[in-house]
Amino acid sequence: MINRRELISYSLAGAGLSIAGVPMAALAQQTKGTINVMVQPEPSGLMLGIVQNGPTQLVSGYIYEGLLRYDDKLEPHGLLATAWSRSDDGLTYTFKLKSGVKWHDGKPFSADDVVFSVDKFLRKTHARLRASLEPLESVRAIDAQTVEFKLKYPFGPFISLFDTGSMPMIPKHIYDNTDYATNPANAKPIGTGPFKYKEWVRGSYIQLVANELYHTKGEPMVENLYFHIIPDAASRAAAFESGKVDVVPGGAVEFFDVARLAKLPGAAVTTKGWEFYSPHSWLVLNNRKAPFDNPKFRQAVMYAMDREAMVKVAWQGFAKTAAGPFNQHVKFASDDVTKYPRDLNKAKALLKEAGYKGETVRLLPLPYGESWQRLAEMIRQNLIQAGIKVETTGTDVAGWNQRTAEWDFDMAIIYVYQYPDPALGVARTYTSHTIAKGSPFNNIEGYVNPKVDALFDAGAKALTDADRAKAYAEVQKILTDEVPVAWLHEINFPTLYRTKIKNPISSGVGLNDSLSRASIG
């Protein structure tokens, strides 16, 4: 909890990379300050205020910055802000901005940019942040270096909203009174970050160069970041094996390749840097239709799955069986919930109680590579062993997005980022007001429980951590009894890197902001 007079000193982060298609001169420079990183898939854009998917955050987290950054304990540290305070009633937050910060075009960064970014630009373009800003009554510039946020009611996770991915600062002098979606700066983004945009060769690489105007002395510590685009999974593994790539983000190569690649001379692997995102996977069960409208059938699905075996086979040990709806990195996660070890006898008994008559149910895998396909096959086999008739219906990424967003599924595999606080990344999956077609990352299962709605609301608005914890403990018990979705795993995405890269992970968002503090040794 941040007290009224608690002041936090600043810190920050950056990133770097490289791969096929980069001029040989640049590859030859890597010992002189170039880091080559893999990005998969290719970003759809680099304007972080408009595009917030994973590949965009990986690259643009070095171009743009938020007011704060977060460590692996999810504690906030200053970035564009040097200090902040919260009023005793939890309704007013005041931020002091770092002086001397400049945009990449040399213009000064000020409180007016913060107000514009939050109250105008991001409210319009950033759907996830827009939902989290519902408690915000006003934001105003007190002076050029001071910003005040006033809330309508206490909102416990408010201080967790200021990371670069959630609340990137946007240059007012470039975007105000323009069409945000078509502004030419979207193609050549301008931020305050440790690296500047240099070049994007579509299908090959994105180059960022060190920002000579950067506001933190001694950063960044490398001259160039190259983000390499390699569509084929086997070729991505080969690129790291051959030495063309220095850093491979989690999920960019198949999990079954990680152990082999990590044993290469001068290679290492870490699972650090995902604490802020808290990836959580589950099997979405369409509660709107039989047999999934019966909680007993949903419980049977949980008991039927051998999730421990999936950890070993599909994830090669880089995952943990999920206890329930909260990733254990998320604040207020509780272990005092109903447990679902594999028990085929219980599963079969529950199916009988639910009146299941053997109708076929469709399983929609997540089309993110061979590891996910292995997971889907294990789920299918487990459910068949319990007596559930399962048919797999595959599709590509676009098809998966459309079918889940339009609720055209019986069961679908998914994973989401849950972020540091349940009000930011957990509630959206289970509260009834988030039921809406168009996105696969809300309550697409159609689960409705007014008590769950009330508890999530109470947990978000309570002023003390004790009151918040009480509400969230109760909601976790209800959810694990009713099983709106079948929880699978907390995924520990492994990052591969060359040991010559020193300090590659230095924050809770990992490669999305760490490489500006990394060096080559």
Automatic annotation (TrEMBL):
Cross-referenced Pfam families: SBP_bac_5
Family matches, as InterPro entries: Peptide/Ni-bd, SBP_5, SBP_5_dom, TAT_signal
Position of the signal peptide: 1-28
Domain Solute-binding protein family: 75-433
Keywords: Signal
Protein family: Belongs to the bacterial solute-binding protein 5 family.
Protein name: ABC transporter substrate-binding protein
Lineage: Bacteria, Pseudomonadati, Pseudomonadota, Betaproteobacteria, Burkholderiales
